[in-house]
Amino acid sequence: MKGISTILLLVLSNTFMTFAWYGHLKFKELRWFENLGLISIVLISWGIAFFEYMFQVPANRIGFKGNGGPFSLVELKVLQEVITLMVFMAFTLIFFKNESIRANHVIGFFFLVLAVYFIFKK
Q: What span, in angstroms and rounded, lies between the C-alpha atoms of 67 and 54?
């Protein structure tokens, strides 16, 4: 159960972080945000990123073997990175329809998933 909770919290965490890092690129399309300066965008992104930490920190605490969780520190980091890419790919396909996913992206992603396999191999 701690493993599933950790993964779900990491997905939520990365969803907020993706919006904090890349969501602002769509602000120009929204009337309220179209004239905001860089400082305003940074502050809004920090506000969104706060929620990323609200999920990331508990995910790491729950999931870490040293706290009774199922994952080593390296396993947590690799999980987080692959989840980040999965969330980013979904975000890109949903919100940035003008971006394309090419074969080299898919191949690179495959190798990252393969990395997870080798990291978790006992």
A: 18
